[in-house]
Amino acid sequence: MVLAELSLAIAAVKGVGEAIDAAKSVAEVAGQLDNALNLTEKAKKNAPAKPTGKHERIVQQKLDKYDNTDGESTNLGAIVQEVTDAKALNNELWRLGVRLDVKWGEGTWQKILDIRAKRLAKQEQIKYEQKQQAIAKAKAQKKFWIEIGKVFLLLNIILIFIWWLFKYY
Fold first, then answer.
1. What digits encode the pLDDT tens for the residues 101-119?
2. Distance from C-alpha of 118 to C-alpha of 142, rounded to nearest angstrom
3. Which end of the chain, C or N, has fewer beta carbons within 10 A?
4. What distance in Å separates the CA atoms of residue 1 and residue 79, rounded to the nearest whole number?
């Protein structure tokens, strides 16, 4: 996880938590909540940052000869920061959920997360289906042009045969 993105996600979640206290409905904080959840997912999905210091890069190059860590920093400070920021983000999300549940009834936060997960899954399914349709369309077009090529080749063979007949008979 990239440290800057974790910090940004934590700040966004805290901002939503503060906005909840003043809001009269969940709809008033929906945009901020969506932004916070998107930043949280982005922070959790991204790969760790590459080493930035000169010495860190040299050590990482030497370690890469013996270890395939995919560019993850082996600096203890970076690892500690990454782990604590991830835990802080999870803690802030839990607090946000508690605030929502207290203000609008128990189960509100879980219901929001469940509906969002269903919609994201549906979105992924639609993307998958569109990709499959594009692949099928490309295959159909390729097959069509192969058939056109066969017809063109057959016509050329027939024309050459007719030309040969007229020339030699």
1. 888 889 988 998 899 999 9
2. 36
3. C
4. 10
pLDDT in tens, 65-108: 655 555 566 677 777 777 888 888 888 888 888 888 888 889 98
Nearest to 32 by CA among 44, 19, 41, 22: 19
**Among 3, 4, 5, residue whose Cα is nearest residue 78:** 3
At a CB cut-off of 8 Å and minimum separation 6, what does 57 contact? Answer: 50, 51
104 burial via Cβ count (<10 Å: 0-12, 13-18, 19+): middle
- The amino acid at residue 75 is N
